[in-house]
Automatic annotation (TrEMBL):
Record-linked PROSITE patterns: FA58C_3 (PS50022)
InterPro entries: FA58C (IPR000421), Galactose-bd-like_sf (IPR008979)
Protein name: E3 ubiquitin-protein ligase hecd-1
UniProt source species: Acropora cervicornis (Staghorn coral)
SUPFAM superfamilies: Galactose-binding domain-like
Domain of life assignment: Eukaryota
Lineage of the organism: Eukaryota, Metazoa, Cnidaria, Anthozoa, Hexacorallia
Stretches for region Disordered: 1-21, 220-255
Ranges annotated as biased composition (Basic and acidic residues): 8-19, 225-234
Domain F5/8 type C: 326-479
Gene3D superfamilies documented for this protein: Galactose-binding domain-like
Entry-linked PANTHER family: BTB DOMAIN-CONTAINING PROTEIN-RELATED, OS05G0345500 PROTEIN
Length: 487
């Protein structure tokens, strides 16, 4: 059974190694995936930076386009304003020409008016002279009307009518002159307004010229900036292409190296797996052989159990019914070499390891191991015997009541290497008592196999808080089987 367990443990270890190998392969793939992801993220960051630069360039180009459109609109507005100024100038020239024409007409009218006024004054003077002559003639003594007087009278009346006609004509010309004066005043006001508008238009024209010059300056600056950005974009694009090519070559080389390394590792792993498969096949064969041996051992155990053995029952502590007492009596007999029971321990501090085999309660023996962790004390029934343990007795091995056993476990083995726990004790105060060399017996619970070796294994400190085992006696009870006997 122990061999089968060892083979099963070996198979489990190989299965565990295979799982570890698979886990390593999975971690390697994960690392490759993480490296590839990091490379992609780096390339993505470079692409994002390039996209941002291109977006900035597109934004600047769009702004440049907007400015060009604004400049074009301003230029069109300026051209419209210039056309409007030219139109207003033409209207102004026409108005000035009309005003000049109208100024010439009042001058002629004034000349004609002065002429008519002079003629009227002359006629009035003439009429007055004639009237004076007529009055003088009338006042002359012996005056009588004659044809000459009638002629003068008619001439006077004609002069008066002519004078009235001239007065009417003068009045008419005066009315016309007033109308022309009002029109001239209106035209002067219009001319003043037109001159003011002309000044405003000239100021607007100068402002538009300045704005146009400023916009053209901005356009030139933007064109220079656009050229600089274009050169920068071209340079960055070229640098990016070079960097991309370098990264691509580097990634291809790394990918090639990883692929070759992975292929080598895969081939090595395949070879290792093939070796493991071969080992597993061999292990299965060994397991099959060991199972056959186990079956034989089970048959042997069954045979041994069916053999007539000696039963050693416990009546009192360290009586004469114990196995240790029975086997220790054979020492010095005809079969003393084959039946000599032995005892060993992890270290020697007080007494000897075989002190626990002396079945004498009246003898005060101080015996113990060194104060070390995992101390132990073992009894070997020799290769001729195996014991189905039912009870065991221990005796304290110190001349004081202190340092007695508290924490230990009783173990059994067939080969002295693989141990099975039969009884476990934690803070067990069975060896505590008022008398020195206190004894105590414990029953073994459960169905266990027969064992050749029995070991007391310390698992904790003793009652004094120290390490080390103090024992001066041990006794075993149960069914003792002699391996050499036949059914």
């Amino acid at each position: 059974e122990t061999t089968t367990e060892s083979l099963s443990q070996k198979e489990q270890d190989q299965t565990g190694e295979k799982e570890i190998f698979e886990e390593d392969e999975r971690l390697l793939q994960k690392c490759d995936y993480v490296d590839e992801k990091n490379k992609q993220e780096k390339q993505s960051e470079n692409l994002e930076a390039a996209k941002e630069e291109q977006e900035k360039i597109r934004q600047l180009q769009w702004e440049n386009k907007q400015l060009k459109e604004k400049v074009t609109e301003k230029t069109l507005e300026f051209e419209k304003m210039l056309a409007l100024v030219q139109q207003i100038k033409r209207k102004l020239r026409n108005s000035l020409e009309k005003i000049k024409d109208k100024d010439v007409l009042p001058k002629d009218m004034r000349v004609e008016k002065r002429r008519l006024h002079e003629e009227s004054n002359a006629e009035r003077s003439r009429c007055d002279a004639l009237s004076e002559e007529v009055r003088r003639l009338r006042e002359m003594p012996g005056h009588e009307s004659c044809s000459r007087c009638e002629g003068l009278k008619n001439e006077r009346d004609s002069a008066r009518r002519k004078n009235e006609t001239l007065e009417n004509k003068i009045q008419e010309w005066r009315s016309i002159s007033e109308v022309y004066l009002r029109q001239n005043q209106e035209l002067q006001e219009n001319l003043k307004s037109v001159k003011e508008e002309h000044g405003i238009l000239q100021l607007s024209s100068r402002k538009l010229e300045a704005a146009k010059e400023e916009q053209q300056q901005k356009i030139r600056q933007l064109q220079r900036k656009n050229r600089d950005l274009g050169d920068k974009v071209t340079e960055q694009t070229s640098e990016y292409q070079k960097t991309l090519q370098r990264e691509k070559k580097k990634n291809n080389k790394q990918l090639k190296d990883c692929r070759e390394r992975f292929q080598e590792e895969a081939q090595a792993n395949i070879a290792s797996l093939e070796n493991m498969i071969e080992e597993k096949k061999l292990l299965r064969k060994e397991i099959k052989a060991e199972r056959s041996k186990c079956d034989d051992l089970r048959k042997e155990v069954k045979r041994l159990r069916e053999m007539p053995g000696r039963i050693h029952n416990h009546k009192k502590d360290f009586d004469t019914n114990g196995v240790v007492y029975a086997l220790a009596k054979n020492v010095g007999g005809p079969n003393s070499i084959q039946t000599r029971i032995t005892a060993t321990r992890s270290s020697d501090e007080e007494g000897k390891a075989t002190d626990i085999l002396v079945n004498r309660v009246d003898r005060e023996i101080v015996s113990g191991t060194m104060a070390e962790k995992e101390s132990w004390w073992c009894v070997d029934l020799t290769e001729n015997y195996a014991l189905y343990l039912t009870d065991y007795t221990l005796r304290h091995g110190n001349h004081t009541n202190g340092s007695y056993f508290l924490n230990w476990q009783l173990e059994g083995s067939l080969d002295g290497e693989s141990w099975k726990t039969l009884s476990r004790h934690v803070s067990d105060r069975g060896l505590k008592g008022k008398e020195r060399y206190q004894t105590h017996t414990w029953a073994i619970v459960g169905d266990h196999s027969a064992f050749r070796y029995f070991r007391i294994f310390q698992t904790g400190k003793n009652s004094s808080g120290d390490l080390g085992i103090f024992l001066s006696g041990i006794e075993l009870y149960g069914v003792l089987i002699e391996k050499g006997s036949q059914c």
